[in-house]
TrEMBL record:
Protein name per its UniProtKB record: Odorant receptor
Keyword Cell membrane appears in the UniProt entry: yes
Compartmental location: Cell membrane
InterPro entries: 7tm6_olfct_rcpt
Key words, A-Z: Cell membrane, Membrane, Olfaction, Receptor, Sensory transduction, Transducer, Transmembrane, Transmembrane helix
Domain of life of the organism encoding this protein: Eukaryota
TM annotation in the entry: 29-47, 123-144, 164-191, 247-267
One Pfam family matching this protein: 7tm_6
Length: 384
């Protein structure tokens, strides 16, 4: 691993969530006993807003979707940390104990790998900065838009004091969202990049093994070491899949719903009415220029963030361990050839992250996500 602990930044925030086994009990009480009920209460207010009134335009539904998906993001992240907190702590410890140093092939190659982690760190900072800007803009909308009294659209009472309490509650919830972004999202992006580097080091180590000389035993010992590390990395990756499997299926569904709604706002300008049920009556009025710009900014930011997760996850799969580079045919040792055969079998195991067993997190699936959102938006446009 690198001499610099890149995971120290998200680890501190993970402990601060109160959902890891090592977290303080007081923080766990605040997270589970205070913030979670506030988020669930906000979901209730959003649903109540959706059911109230006889006629709602698509712009209001887009804002309700934004509010609902914001709650879904925070609840899904907290679920991951609460259910798999012990596994996250185990991954952090194993990374510190068993990951290879970046400079085992010299400082020059080590610096090349360090640059990969530095690039990922900069990307993480961009994501965090985007999250901060989004939260600030949500809060500022209540200043410039007089019809909007709270950052996240939901049902609000006529009493100004109660509305103020809901406003303060939403600000606290958005603060927790930012905290979750700094913890679980940063952790995932950094650990995936670090895992990819480990596969790069393993591949280079395998290429350095040469048989057919008087040092076959040393080469065999090195190959056994590579086999053990490869087995460890496969188990390590399987643990990541266990932790984030449910999160990715929620992320996929939420992204499709929001992206299709905002794509409709950008592409279609018709005015029409659509009655889906007695309480769901949507009026598709023409969005203004400001509405289209807001939807375009929200859509681009959301697709960039989701695309980042899919691309970095897919990058790990690309680093396939190529056992075929071994010149095993130059050795007459049956023991070595059997071990090479065993490594070939293990290298054929598919390295993938799935969302709930239904979604393969990779680049092609991300393209399919964008296409699905566009298709739904087109269908909505045809219905109007």
């Amino acid at each position: 691993m690198s001499s610099k602990n890149y995971l120290s930044f998200p680890t501190g925030f993970l402990l601060g969530t109160g959902l890891l086994p090592e977290s303080k009990f007081s923080r766990k009480i605040v997270s589970i006993g205070v913030f979670t009920p506030m988020t669930l209460f906000l979901v209730y207010l959003i649903v109540k807003k959706a059911r109230n009134g006889e006629n709602k335009d698509v712009l209001l539904w887009a804002e309700l979707f934004e509010s609902l998906t914001t709650c879904a993001h925070i609840l899904s992240r907290k679920y991951v940390m609460y259910v798999h907190g012990g596994l996250i702590s185990q991954i952090i410890k194993e990374r510190g104990c068993y990951f290879w140093n970046y400079d085992i092939f010299g400082p020059k190659f080590g610096q090349t790998l360090e640059r990969k982690m530095n690039i990922c760190t900069k990307i993480v900072k961009i994501v965090v900065s985007g999250g901060v800007v989004t939260i600030v803009l949500f809060c500022l909308t209540t200043v410039f838009d007089k019809s909007k009294v709270v950052p996240l659209v939901c049902w609000t009472p006529e009493d100004s004091l109660q509305t103020g309490i809901i406003y303060a509650m939403e600000v606290l919830i958005m603060f927790e969202i930012m905290w979750a972004l700094l913890s679980i999202d940063c952790f995932y992006l950094l650990i995936c990049t670090d895992l990819r580097i480990q596969f790069i080091l393993l591949q280079r180590m395998i290429k350095s093994i040469k048989f057919g000389s008087n040092h076959d035993e040393k080469s065999f010992a090195k190959m056994v070491h590579c086999t053990q590390h490869h087995k460890f990395l496969l188990h390590f990756h399987a643990k990541l899949n266990t932790i984030f499997s449910s999160y990715f299926i929620v992320l996929y569904l939420v992204t499709v719903a929001c992206a299709s709604m905002h794509t409709y706002i950008i592409l279609f300008k018709q005015v029409a009415n659509l009655d889906i049920s007695d309480w769901l009556k949507v009026r598709f009025r023409s969005p203004g220029f400001g509405d289209s710009i807001k939807s375009a900014c929200y859509l681009s930011g959301m697709l960039f963030q989701v695309g980042l997760y899919f691309v970095i996850t897919s990058n790990v799969e690309i680093e396939v361990v190529e056992i075929y580079n071994l010149n095993w045919e130059n050795t007459g040792s049956v023991k070595i050839r059997k071990h090479v055969l065993f490594m070939l079998m293990k290298s054929q195991e598919e390295l993938s992250v799935t969302g709930g067993g239904m979604l393969h997190v990779k680049r092609n699936e991300y393209v399919g996500l964008v296409r699905l959102a566009y298709t739904i938006a087109t269908i909505l446009g045809g219905m109007t």
